[in-house]
Amino acid sequence: MKTYVASKNAGKLVEMRAIFAGSALDLDTYEQYRDVEEGSSSYIDNALLKARSLAEQLHAAGIQAAVLSDDSGIEVDAMDRRPGVLSARYAGAGATWTQRLALMLEELRGVPDAARTARFVCAMALVLPGGAELVATGIVEGVVAHEEHGVRGFGYDPIFYFPPRDCTFAELAADEKNALSHRRRAADALLTTLHEHA
User: Which of 26, 70, 71, 188 is catalytic?
Assistant: First the structure.
């Protein structure tokens, strides 16, 4: 099923294609996709907002296809589960990922390992050509490291330490990360829901 991804994040698109490889969804990008202003209350609401927006753009262009989107973030317990849905906007508008990571590490300076627990959360939304909307969520638990490690991945990966592998997400090979990430877990749940819907 031809499926357009509602995102302009190149790293995310690469991951999504790898995660959904071999599934019923044939992922592609829509060059004219216009980003929408995300909300601040719910990953699922944001994922649906993006998917619905692209679905409307495709419909206006006469394109019949499904739309896939996701919204994800990191929740840090010592920061009262911030930044959450505001993860991409943490450190302010226009901040770079280097600045976001530095700010988080500074905010957690002196916080002991036991209190640095965190989780990556991903919500995915799939809008089918007929208008049906399917959603799913995936979560992976970890700890915020004291400094950056690794050069792979994107976003908060360099400071998200994953105890079962004794490394950060940015130290994992792409296929390893894609096999266990929050995005993988959300994708698996979404594909199960799609199968049941069919």
Answer: 71
